[in-house]
Amino acid sequence: MKRRQFLATAGAGALTVTLAGCSLVPVIPQRPTSTADDALGWIRHEGGRYTLWLPSTEMGQQISAALQGLAAQELGVPPAQVHLRLPATTDIARMRATVGSASVQDFALPLARACATLREALAQGRTTGTLGARDIPASALRSLQPRAGARPPAAPAPGQLHAIVTGQPLFAGDTRLPGLLYGRVLRAPASAELTSHPRSFDEAAARADPACVAVLQSPRLRQMGSRGLGIVARTPAALDRIEAALAVQWEVDGAFGQPAIDERIDIDQHLRRGRLQHAVRQDDVPGDTLWTLDLRMDIPLAAHAPIEPRSATAQWMPQEGEGPALRVWAGTQDMFYIRDVLARQLGLEAGRIAVQACRVGGGFGGRTLCTVELEAAVLAQAAGAPVKVQWSRAQEFAQGFQRPPSSHRIRARVHQGRLTHWWHAFASSHILFTPAAMPVWMQRLADLAGDSGVARGAQLPYGVPRQRIEFTAARLPVHTGPWRGLGAGPNTLAVESAMDECARIAGADPLDWRLRHTSDTRLGAVLAQAASHARWGERPRSDATTLRGRGIAGGIYKGLSYAAAVADVEVHRGTGEVRVTAIWCAHDCGLVLQPDGVRAQTEGNLVWCLGMVLLEQVPVARSGVAAATFADYPLPRMGDVPPLHVHLVDSREPPTGAGETAMVAGAGAIANALRDATGVRFTRLPVRRADVQHALAPR
């Protein structure tokens, strides 16, 4: 560990210790490592029935099927005999949040050990009592043997498929309780980074509606700088009428637009002030005159855009006995963190709150904070009845956090057919130290350590003797935070674009150029495999009406998982319309428990990459996010998605996560294919039809 790294690490540790006892500090997520003894609380056997309490949030990534299949194989029973349950915080011990593509990596080994312990106990005739897990090595577990070895193909596990297709209530929005009421928290049409509150409203007009149950002002309805106004109604439709009758006038302190965001992350402005705040690597590099390549790229704000806007239902229980005083049904990536925030905000012991996990209709890092859950709990307490709060699509855009924009400057020196120097400087906003939960003063202290989420993917996966990689994170007036892959998507897009330009400068084939600069056999293997499946040498040809191009990119996610992609694109010469016609992806995430699930996750990643390059940008206007519907924030549609050819590497390595890995490859491949087709490197995303027309126009 270098001295700078030591100081940064020590600073982070000191920060945690210093702030832990401070009442002004927001609740900090606890992310323990689960043991096999913990996992014995996930798998249970009663009355001849196996039940698996799912430790990971199911949000469409099919982790329920993967862990169900693993448990069944280890227990030696068909998957259908392992019944799935979504737990509450009162059912299992605290575990890590579902983040970072780490569910299989975190939970597979302890669950396999727990199931092996249970299997052996049942074989010995032990059917009652509590077990203690044995520390069984992975090599001795049935479910974790490589497919290339003795392990036969496992029977496919259904996960929650039957419940989905039969319409069973799995999502938070499906919750139905006797006497259920419906709530909404109104907020100023401005970012929560600005201070805002209701200046005036017509409460009498709202209460004149017979469906109105409550109008509530409470300090607990504050979301960072935004002080909300709560309403409760007897029917969901009445909420719109009551909101209109209130006619709230809002007081908002401050204002901003898109130029304010652009200015704060302008990498050239940061570089003019000297070295950036944080270094990933800091070799000495030459002055400006020696650079062969000098490339700037700008990548905008992007939204999570889940199909399901978030929802929560809260019910306060009669104060009798020792059971929970508050029950909350929520679709969250970290139900224990939600419980902890509710306990702090409501003045309850954590043990008196039960948060019931629900299936999530798309999380992508956006369901990590406590928002709608607190709103439901506060409104339910005021109404004296269970209350459901269901955000609208407009609320999901405006009140969630976004993927931060980033501004990159990459300089490289090519000498005698090799990269000899590399300097990547970039500016972005916070991801793990999200301003959606962290006040300004605390974020300034956290910045001493640096936000590793911003830096993810910036480490160059290729061998270059001298490298300088540095970054800074600026707090923005629009809240930013984790988005699929964190910084890995934007950072590797910039890196792979620069690598492609360097190959062109050297007159080298882009595939050969990458292979020439890596000694990592797994990275080389996925690059070669993606190229082989795409028939790399058979390049598409342009004609009188259509420009065609092919691009390749690859990378390493979190230093553990590998992906490479080849993309083909077509560009209409007259209209500037861009169409991706095919993507091939080779994917190595170690041992694959459920191939269909990993393949589906990879396909989803590739669609995100397509949107990242060609479509997605959060519009900012009037001091906030200006998107209210998907018409304002276009996503890839079915007609935009090309054939996706995903090839999984049959690996003997331990499982390392698949949910975000292909983000390091897909976007770069598409961008490089567009460069190959048009001869133009588009450096400001997304690349729209008008941008292409302008670039192709005769000069």
Question: Any overview of this molecule?
Answer:
By secondary structure, this protein is an alpha+beta fold. The chain has three domains: 36-165, Aldehyde oxidase/xanthine dehydrogenase, molybdopterin binding domain (Aldehyde Oxidoreductase, domain 4, 2-Layer Sandwich); 172-254 and 310-390, 2-Layer Sandwich (Aldehyde Oxidoreductase, domain 4); 266-303 and 402-696, Aldehyde Oxidoreductase, domain 4 (2-Layer Sandwich), CATH 3.30.365. Strands 6-7-4-14-11-12-13 form a seven-stranded mixed sheet. Strands 9-17-16-15-10 form a five-stranded mixed sheet. The chain has a four-stranded mixed sheet with strand order 18-19-20-23. The longest helix is centred in the first third of the chain and has 21 residues, at 103-123. The chain is globular and about 80 Å long. The model is unreliable at 1-18 (pLDDT under 50).
Structural class: alpha+beta
| Average of pLDDT | 93
Helical content class: 25-40%
Measure the end-to-end span.
53 Å
Could you write a compact summary of the structure shown?
The chain has about 700 residues and is an alpha+beta fold.
Keywords:
3 domains; Aldehyde Oxidoreductase, domain 4; 20 helices; alpha+beta
Protein topology:
Elements: H1 3-19, H2 36-39, E1 43-46, E2 49-53, H3 63-75, E3 82-85, H4 103-123, H5 161-165, E4 181-186, E5 195-200, H6 203-207, E6 212-223, E7 226-233, H7 236-246, E8 249-253, H8 258-265, H9 267-272, E9 278-282, E10 293-299, E11 311-316, E12 326-330, H10 335-346, E13 353-357, H11 372-383, E14 387-390, H12 393-399, E15 406-415, E16 418-428, H13 440-446, H14 452-455, E17 466-473, H15 488-506, H16 510-516, H17 521-534, E18 546-557, E19 561-572, E20 578-588, H18 595-614, E21 620-621, E22 624-625, E23 644-648, H19 666-678, H20 689-696
Parallel strand pairs: 2-3, 4-14, 12-13, 16-17, 20-23
Antiparallel strand pairs: 1-2, 4-7, 5-8, 6-7, 9-17, 10-15, 11-12, 11-14, 15-16, 18-19, 19-20, 21-22
